[in-house]
Automatic annotation (TrEMBL), chain A:
Cellular-component GO terms for this entry: Golgi apparatus
Residue ranges occupied by any Trafficking protein particle complex subunit domain in the UniProt entry: 263-521
Subcellular location(s) of the protein: Golgi apparatus, cis-Golgi network
Lineage: Eukaryota, Metazoa, Chordata, Craniata, Vertebrata
Species this chain originates from: Engystomops pustulosus (Tungara frog)
Protein name per Swiss-Prot or TrEMBL: Trafficking protein particle complex subunit 11
Family, per entry: Belongs to the TRAPPC11 family.
Automatic annotation (TrEMBL), chain B:
Protein name: Trafficking protein particle complex subunit
InterPro entries: Longin-like_dom_sf, Sedlin, TRAPPC, TRAPPC2L
Location of the protein in the cell: Cytoplasm, Perinuclear region; Endoplasmic reticulum; Golgi apparatus, cis-Golgi network; Golgi apparatus
Keyword Endoplasmic reticulum: yes
Organism per entry: Engystomops pustulosus (Tungara frog)
Gene3D superfamilies: 3.30.450.70
Sequence similarity: Belongs to the TRAPP small subunits family. Sedlin subfamily.
UniProt KW keywords: Cytoplasm, Endoplasmic reticulum, ER-Golgi transport, Golgi apparatus, Transport
Top-level taxon of origin: Eukaryota
GO process terms (BP): endoplasmic reticulum to Golgi vesicle-mediated transport
GO cellular component: endoplasmic reticulum; Golgi apparatus; perinuclear region of cytoplasm; TRAPP complex
Length: 1134, 139
């Protein structure tokens, strides 16, 4: 885009840098010079001094310097700032001219060269006549210079050269052309920079010196001009603080100028320039708040300075530019690291710029609506002799005229007309849109979604004005969603109205219909007459006719649109439109519901579709159809009505598809579910409502799922929250809000009419064949077929239970591990009505605990639904929880033969007893059929092993015991525990029938410690004695070792007995033999008396004490009192 | 003086919005709607502060060239937005605050009406009158 009148000049916006020209360099043909030049201009990073270099020929003509006036007395300035001034000091008048000259110190023709150099310097000086521009000379040398002071020739010749060129020593430089070129160049330019700064300093001083000659009345403009120049030179000098200060002063001075319509533009232009500079510097100094404050002040001061009313669009354009420029500055500062916030970001300035651009457009349309016959004035009043203005912001046709009176009103008129005509050709929309899109980008960055949407609406509207309807629709469509979801209906309606206009003007059928649908809907805030008009148009479109134009459309565009519509009408085909209405708020609302969340397969599935319209007039639809997840049902849910297309608005009493506004209409559908769908979900996937007919245009309104739209969810919430009583309605009608969408239903199997009864006697006993009697009785009216039974452990329990539970139908023998835990699909056949069937199920649980069993009966039955025959599979299931317990507890222990003492170890070859106690734990009586002892090889029975508990019946809590006499033969490794075998009990329930198998419970006998002893002693003793009657006792001592045993025996006396026999003896027993000792005890007292104890000392086995041996000996004996003689006699007599 | 007064529901849809009839009503709707950006931001920033120390008055939301927009949010996240003419420099922060308080009281009265269903647009003559008084009389 070419710069317009309102854009700031480039020289204002750039960063001013000291201007230095380089002469005497031949950059085209001389490689050395080229390298030097490259080193100056290439790679200028921020750490290099800010200088702008230019290569010029040595004889370049610099702008002439006008003779400085000595007095301002009669001088009247013609304007504030000349248009060329900034550029002159940036690019034309250098602060320093550098003369490059190739000269080595040891040059042979030194004299000639020196004078040539002096001539060159002189030429430059001539050209800079009257200016304070500095001149410097750089000698390009091939040799590396010696350190200062060592080269005497050099210093001498240098002095001579300075003299010849009239230079100070500080202005002569040497540039050896060696490896370190860049380093030398950087040092050089630093030196140049110092010179340049001195130059700008003197310039500032010079301008300041003019001040005292000025007076406030005639030289007001000069105050501003000088202040501006000082500030600008300060910038060139890189003294930004002073520049800012001076610009601020200049800004204040501008507003002190006497303003009038004729110079308003000039003042504003200069104010805008200075303001720009101030804001720029403030951002540069990282004081953004100062920048913002300055800008606000600027706007407040200038907002009302409109100037000529006929050119008021210029003011708007100027304002727009001010905001835009500030926005740009702000944005640039952000890119350099400034942080902006949500409420203070460049977006606001772009937005405001866009606002003024809109204002400009508005004013232009008011002021520039000249007839086409009005010709552009000739000669062109905007033409100036040299093509540019002399001063910023002046009118071309009266430059330099300071008088406020218009000397030539005709010329003024022509000028204004020319400007107005020019303004007419400006494409305002483009400007506005680009500003808006700048703003959008900013607001997006600063989390202002709504502001962004608002600006996009404005952009869309601007595109609409610019007749770019496609782009307009794209933008509007995009933001509509946001306004709809936030439910700002007023705004949505306004956007929709614009969108509808666009759609009309482009004759976009589908969009036109879509927007109409929503504008007629309940979310639209349009008045009824508007809705009425839109509805009429919609009907016309459906009847394949052109709609009436939208209001407020341009007449010419309407003509075009009408032609487009006519073309659309004549085009055949593609007249079907499917519109997804779920995502907006159309004028028809739809709610579909299944009557129940589930249906039995032998009942018809019923559903209602409710429709309600919000448009002003009744409207007819041609078809309503419902789509399901299983599409086979779709055919059952269709309502269709044929009517003449002209009748679409006609209200008919019979017409089922005619919807009256505000009235809820219910459509009932019914169908029979397929038996395959049992256990599945049927979903409504879509509801299609068809508006219009095949002959005209046809619109399918499509709801996904069971209806509802963008607003319905919230409405439902509000309705649910409301305490308001709804007015009474006749039974046939319902309240729209009270309808709840039910878009899916389950098809479940028919209710079974069969009873399943279970009989059993819990708890189950461990390992028994537990009988569960299943009784199935049909209560159906017809024969049921294919009855199947599934019974057993209910799946989904502890996995270990599956291993430990066995199920069978055969109860006659104990099932083995091959039986499953669950018997599936046992065919049973058919059952007549009322027929009853018993099935025993045997369960064997090999662990105790609780189990859940499942009994599941399924069957087929023929039935009819709504006259349609179907085969239903019905099923009934029962579960039962069964506890398994141990039938009895078995306790086994080893006891000594003499005193039934508990033994923790047994001795080789010495008999002992095994006692088995069976304690019934079953709540039912048990019959023990037999018991059996299976001994291991370590143990042998002393006598026959026969069961003592055969056919014993045990009630709950009763116990049976038996004992066996055993002994351990000697073995290889004594002293260790040995397995003794197992004990097997065969039992069944006492109540069980004969063919119920006997359960064998195996009890593993405990291990026992077996020890061998060197000596065994046994006493032969009568079971009782009598006072004063002799009691003979014989002790048998048996040597169990292979050695001869020396034994000491002593009998300790006892109070209760006298005795005869060896009181103390020492004897030897040969290996394997036994010795007998006979004693005659004579009891003295009656009662349970302690026998005289036998102390035995085995000399070879000192550890083997008498204490251990005493275990084998009786310690007490019962002594009966002396009987009376009579009794004695009677006994003898007997 | 207020040129537009709006009550916005927790879900950010308008419950009540009234502007001076002399100017484009739509413009104020947009102004109020866009100001919700700032309200949302302020509320989410406030969420971190202690609940009981919460200040309901949100202050100046953002200045436009011609208007100043002020915000206020109740504990139930219902927002009040007031648009004031920028040229009216007499209106201090404190006065705006008291206007909001008045509005809040009136809104509370509306809520106390057993026939009012929270979330529905406000249609109350008493509330209307409060708003009118703010839009007409100089504080």
């Amino acid at each position: 885009m070419s710069p317009t009148q309102w854009d700031f000049p480039v020289e204002l916006c750039c960063r001013p840098m000291a201007f230095v020209t380089l002469t005497g360099l031949d950059v085209t043909y001389n490689a050395v010079h080229r390298a030097i030049w490259d080193a100056f201009c290439a790679n200028r990073r921020a750490d290099r001094v800010p200088i702008s270099f230019k290569v010029l020929p040595g004889d370049h003509e610099y702008p002439k310097c006008r003779t400085k006036r000595t007095s301002y007395e009669w001088y009247i300035p013609k304007g504030i700032l000349k248009t060329g001034w900034m550029n002159k000091h940036l690019n034309l008048v250098p602060a320093l001219v550098v003369v490059f000259y190739e000269l080595d110190w040891d040059e042979a023709q030194w004299k000639e060269k020196q004078s040539e150099c002096a001539t060159r310097v002189e030429i430059v000086r001539q050209s800079l006549q009257g200016r304070n521009t500095k001149v410097a000379v750089v000698l390009i040398q091939k040799k590396t210079p010696l350190p200062p002071g060592e080269d005497l020739i050099a210093s001498e010749r240098a002095a001579a050269l300075c003299n010849a060129c009239d230079l100070s020593g500080k202005s002569l430089f040497v540039l050896p052309h060696t490896d370190h070129l860049v380093g030398y160049i950087i040092r050089l330019e630093n030196a140049f920079y110092e010179h340049a700064q001195t130059y700008y300093y003197t310039e500032i001083r010079r301008i300041k010196s003019h001040k005292e000659f000025l007076n406030k009345t005639t030289h007001q403009l000069l105050f501003v001009r000088h202040q501006f120049k000082i500030a600008f030179f300060s910038e060139l000098k890189q003294d930004t603080q002073n520049a800012l200060k001076n610009y601020r002063t200049a800004y204040n001075l501008v507003h002190e100028l006497r303003s009038h319509e004729t110079n308003m533009l000039e003042i504003k232009t200069m104010a805008g320039f200075i303001n720009y500079k101030i804001c720029r510097l403030c951002f540069q100094h990282n004081t953004p708040l100062d920048a913002i404050a300055q800008f606000r002040k600027h706007i407040d001061l200038c907002k009302k300075k409109i100037g000529s009313a006929e050119l008021s669009f210029e003011h708007a354009a100027w304002m727009s530019k001010q905001f835009q420029a500030f926005g740009d500055l702000f944005d640039e500062a952000i890119k350099l690291g400034l942080t902006a916030i949500q409420t203070q970001n460049p977006g606001f300035y772009y937005q405001q710029a866009a606002y003024y651009a809109q204002e400009r457009k508005h004013l232009a349309s008011l002021l520039c609506h000249h007839d086409l016959s009005v010709a552009y004035p000739s000669p062109d009043p905007l033409e100036t002799p040299n093509g540019v203005l002399d001063f910023y912001g002046q009118r071309a046709w009266r430059q330099g005229i300071l008088s406020f009176d218009l000397s030539d009103p005709e010329k003024e008129k022509a000028g204004i007309l020319a400007l107005q005509l020019k303004e007419r050709d400006v494409i305002h929309s483009e400007l506005i849109i680009s500003l808006l899109s700048n703003a959008v980008a900013q607001f997006k960055k600063y989390k202002c979604p709504r502001m962004k949407s608002h600006l996009m609406v404005q952009m869309g509207e601007e595109y609409y004005y610019a007749k770019d309807y496609t782009k307009a629709l794209k933008l509007l469509d995009y933001v509509m969603v946001d306004y709809r979801s936030e439910r700002w209906w007023t705004l949505l309606t306004s956007i929709l109205s614009t969108a509808l206009k666009c759609a009309y003007l482009m004759a976009q059928l589908k969009d036109y219909i879509t927007y109409s649908l929503e504008l007629l809907g309940r979310a639209s805030t349009l008045k009824d007459d508007q809705k009425s008009r839109i509805e009429k148009n919609l009907i016309m479109v459906l009847m394949n006719e052109s709609p009436d134009p939208e209001p407020e459309c341009d007449a010419s565009t309407v003509k075009l649109a009408q032609r487009l519509w006519a073309d659309r009408v004549s085009l055949a085909g593609s007249n079907m439109f499917t519109i997804e209405v779920q995502d907006f708020v159309p004028f028809v609302q739809c709610k579909a519901k299944f009557l129940a969340p589930s249906f039995h397969v032998d009942n018809p599935v019923e559903l209602y579709v409710y429709l309600k319209t919000d448009c002003p007039h009744p409207i007819r639809f041609s078809k309503l159809c419902v789509g399901f997840s299983n599409q086979e049902y779709n055919q059952f849910c269709v309502v269709e009505e044929q009517y003449q297309s002209s009748d679409i608005l006609q209200q008919s009493a019979q017409g089922t598809m005619c919807l009256v506004p505000g009235k809820t209409r219910k459509f009932t559908f019914k169908f029979v579910a397929k038996t395959e769908d049992v256990g599945k979900k049927i979903e409504i996937t879509s509801v299609d409502l068809i508006l219009g007919s095949e002959t005209g245009r046809c619109v399918i309104l499509n709801w996904r799922g069971g209806g509802g739209d963008a607003a319905s969810a919230q409405e439902a919430v509000q309705a649910a929250r409301s305490f308001k009583r709804r007015p009474m309605l006749p039974d046939t009608e319902v309240h729209w809000d009270s309808i709840i969408i039910q878009a899916s239903t389950m098809i479940i199997s028919r209710v079974p009419k069969v009873s399943v009864q279970l009989r059993h006697e819990p708890p189950a006993l461990n390992n028994e064949m537990y009988c569960l009697m299943i009784t199935i009785q049909s209560q159906e009216d017809a024969v049921i077929r294919d009855v199947k039974l599934t019974a057993g452990l209910k799946p989904g329990q502890d996995a270990n239970l599956t291993q430990k539970t066995l199920v069978t139908l055969q109860g006659t023998e104990i099932c083995d591990d091959s039986s499953p835990a669950l018997l599936t699909d046992i065919p049973i056949g058919n059952l007549q009505p009322g027929e009853k069937l018993d099935m025993p199920l045997y369960i064997r649980c090999s662990t105790v605990g609780t189990r859940v069993f499942l009994v599941y009966v399924s069957y087929l039955i023929d039935t009819s639904v709504d006259g349609k025959d179907i085969v239903c599979r019905c099923h009934r299931d029962e579960t039962v929880t069964i506890e398994t317990v141990y039938p009895f507890d078995v306790a086994v222990k080893f006891v000594s033969i003499k005193q039934f003492e508990h033994l923790d170890r047994v001795y080789t070859d010495i008999p002992f007893l095994l006692m088995a106690d069976i304690l019934s734990a079953s709540p039912w009586a048990l019959t023990i059929l037999s018991s059996q002892l299976q001994l291991s090889s370590f143990v042998t029975p002393v006598d026959e092993l026969e069961s003592h508990v055969e056919n014993v019946v045990l009630q709950t809590g009763e116990s049976a015991s038996e004992c066996f006499c055993l002994h351990c033969p000697p073995m290889a490794s004594p002293q260790s525990g040995v397995a003794t075998g197992s004990y097997i009990i065969s039992w069944k329930r006492s109540s069980a029938v004969d063919n119920v198998p006997v359960v064998k419970t195996v009890v593993t006998l405990p291990h026992v410690m077996v020890e061998s002893i060197p000596l065994h002693i046994r006493a032969d003793l009568p079971s009782f004695g009598r006072v004063r009657e002799s009691l003979p006792v014989k002790y048998h001592l048996q040597n169990k070792t292979n050695l001869v045993q020396d034994i000491e025996i002593a009998v300790e006396p006892s109070d209760a007995f006298m005795f005869s026999g060896l009181k103390q003896i020492r004897l030897q027993i040969l290996p394997g033999t036994q010795q007998e000792m006979l004693y005659n005890f004579y009891p003295l007292m009656a009662g349970y008396q302690q026998l005289p104890s036998l102390n035995i000392n085995v000399l070879r086995f000192p550890n083997f004490t008498s204490h251990m041996l005493k275990r084998f000996l009786p310690t007490h004996v019962f002594v009966k009192p002396q009987g009376r003689r009579v009794d004695d006699d009677s006994i003898e007599a007997a | 003086m207020a040129v537009c007064v709006a009550v916005i529901a927790k879900e950010n849809y308008p419950l009540y919005i009234r502007s001076i009839p002399t100017e484009n009503q739509l413009k104020f709707h947009y102004t109020v709607h866009t100001s919700l950006d700032v309200v949302d931001e302020k509320i989410s920033a406030m969420g971190k502060a202690l609940v009981d120390q919460r200040e309901l008055y949100l202050g100046l939301l953002y200045p436009t060239e011609d208007y100043k927009v002020y915000g206020y949010v109740t504990n139930s996240k219902v927002k009040f937005v007031m648009v004031v003419d920028s040229s009216n420099t007499a209106l201090r922060d404190n006065e705006i605050r008291s206007m909001f308080r008045k509005l809040h009281n009136s809104y509370t009265d509306v809520m106390c009406n057993p026939f009012y269903n929270p979330g529905d647009p406000i249609q109350s003559r008493a509330f209307d009158n409060t708003v009118t008084s703010m839009m007409v009389a100089a504080c």
